Amino acid sequence: MPKAVVCRELGPPEKLRVETICRMPLAPGKIRIAIRAAGINFPDILMVAGEYQFKPDLPFTPGMEAAGDVIEVGKDARGFAIGDRVIVKLRHGGFADEVAVTPEHLVRLPSTFDYAEGATFLAAHGTAYHALVDRAQIKPGEVLLVHGAGGGVGLAAVEVGKLLGATVIVTASNKEKLAAAKARGADHGILLGHKPMREAVKDLTDGRGADVVFDPVGGAVFEESMRCIAWGARLLVVGFTGGVGLARTNLVLIKGASVLGVRAGEAARKNPELGVARIKALTEWAEAGRIRPNISHRLPLADVAKAMRLLIDRKAIGRVALMME
């Protein structure tokens, strides 16, 4: 019988349990996937704590993205066949041995990726693409400042920014994370706490500042970013793992800047054409070997709490994947 991670009580990851679940008959229009790997995202952690904007009813299985094989195709389901290797896009449900979805939740796994890479691809790289292309409309030659560059979404922003022709400056909390970002193409690195961020960014840009700020951290990092920007800058609010930052409106006004919220999944739900274009560009880059998730840890499904703690404690560099037996 298949197993799944089940959240029956909101709280820390340690409250999650792996349970045996019943396999339901496949409904018409659905496709059953044997999941081989699932990616852990920070929203998964917030969701099981009851702190995310989307709150599924209890009990539920977390997991926003996974990858695996098509093992059953229901009546009237089109576009995929048994044996196809696919990425599964979800709001929750990915931390399981199996899942049944409609075809629009599936994307063909790039031939250059293994299952873990496929399961850690679209959430982070999709967020980076939506932020830099749809929201900031970054241009070649502009300066991109990426915070949290050792995390999965930060490293994705480095890769996407370089592909779009930006000069990329990154910040991180330790030298290992800076090294990982530079290996992905970052031009300059700033070690937080070593030198004031404003001074470091201004030194690297001849006093001009950054054109685009990609910020999944928030808190004091966001507030300091506002002192590092060029005229007409776009500050991308991607997340707030370091707390909610306060925008100083006088700095926004003086610099003619824009503060832009980034919700890649919701944007695609509101405007499906955005999602189609995003996936097309990302999968083409993946097939060409130009982008690839950085996975620092691969753990079994039973270690889901330990895997989540790697993100909470900032011990992962890039992504963490759960591997199914």
Protein model, in words:
There is one protein chain. With 325 residues, the protein is of the alpha/beta class. Helices cover 31% and strands 26% of the residues. It contains eleven helices and 15 strands. The strands form three sheets. Strands 3, 4, 5, 6, 7, 14 and 15 form a seven-stranded mixed β-sheet that branches. Helix 3 crosses helix 4 (152-163), helix 3 (122-135) packs across helix 10 (272-287) and helix 9 (264-270) packs across helix 10. The chain is globular and about 65 Å long.
Structure keywords:
Quinone Oxidoreductase, Chain A, domain 1; globular; 15 strands; alpha/beta; 325 residues; 6-stranded parallel sheet; 2 domains
Topology:
Layout lengths: L2 E4 L10 E4 L10 E10 L1 H8 L15 E9 L11 E5 L8 E4 L4 E3 L6 H5 L2 H14 L7 E4 L5 H12 L3 E6 L2 H9 L4 E4 L5 H8 L5 E6 L3 H7 L3 E9 L11 H6 L3 E4 L2 H7 L1 H16 L7 E6 L3 H9 L6 E5 L2
